[in-house]
Amino acid sequence: MSKNEGINVKQSNIEEETSRFKIKPAGTGKDEESRESGITELPLEPRRRAFPIWLRLVAIVFFSAFALVAGAMIGYGIVGDGNVFDVFKVGTWQHIVDIINKGT
After folding, report:
1. What residue segments make up the domains of the chain, in order of their start?
2. DSSP assignment of 32-98, as one string?
3. Which pLDDT score, from 0 to 100, does residue 67 have?
4. Burial class (CB within 10 angstroms; exposed 0-12, middle 13-18, buried 19+) of 92
5. What is the pTM of this model?
6. CB 23 within 8 A of CB 44
7. Residue closest to 72 by CA, chosen among 51, 56, 86
8. Is the dihedral of CA 90, 92, 98, 100 positive or negative?
9. Which of 61, 83, 62 has its CA nearest to residue 73?
């Protein structure tokens, strides 16, 4: 087998693989020929998502903010033996910043 014969074999394999797909507009039914020949239809219309991407991003931001607030409340109120709602006071955070800056 020469070098060119190997290329021809690869090219014919690619043609066989791509010939299985027949592009048809989405929503058209399969006919008998395409079922029998094994031709797969590729949809041309974009997929309509039940949960749009922009809504996913909004949900991620919302749940991340919720997790941050809940974590601060649990960490300060329950683990730190403070009042849970003291997390929302500016004085609490000023005290934390003062402790951090005092050490440097």
Report:
1. 3-42, 53-102
2. HHHHHHTPEEE--SPPPPSS-HHHHHHHHHHHHHHHHHHHHHIIIIIIS-S-GGGGG-HHHHHHHHH
3. 98
4. middle
5. 0.50
6. yes
7. 86
8. negative
9. 83
Distance CA 63, CA 24 (A): 41
| Both tokens assigned to 102 | 């005092």
Tokens of residue 85, six digits: 């709602």
- How far apart are the C-alpha atoms of 85 and 69, rounded to whole Å? 10
b/e per residue, 30-44, with b = 16+ CB within 10 A? eeeeeeeeebeeeee
pLDDT per position as a tens digit, 40-87: 666 678 778 888 999 999 999 999 999 999 999 999 888 988 889 999
